[in-house]
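Message: Just now I want nothing more than another pair of eyes on a protein record. I am handing you a single protein, as its sequence and its fold in token form. As I understand it, each token names a local backbone shape. Take your time, and here it is.
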Amino acid sequence: MIVRTLEDIAGTDRDVVGNDRDKAKGTWRSLRLVLAREGVGFSLHDTVLYAGTQTSMWYANHIEAVYVIDGEGELVDHDNGETHKLAPGTMYLLDGHEKHTLHAHTDLRTVCVFNPPVTGREVHDADGVYPLMTEPGEES
């Protein structure tokens, strides 16, 4: 059994600040509660996207489910041009590897699940993609 709190992981290697590659300031902070190293087949993150920012991503190698627990924003699906309002109680699932942009109108707090799990070492590339990484000793 694993029990951990956000306070337990704040300031550790599980505390990751993201960047939209066009700004020096990170557009989000993600506290990774469960990572690939736990060996459970998914990763679980508490992520805040900062008010007034936009972040473009494309998870070509992962499926991501996102549940909004606080704040407001918009999700733009670049594959079909649709825009979706984000507010507490909203969930979206990127099950088709959709290219998307998140606009955080206020601080937008989310709970995210990735499959396959992330290691915590990934960095978004120029297209917003996380590479598919494994833990030492794991097969990809």
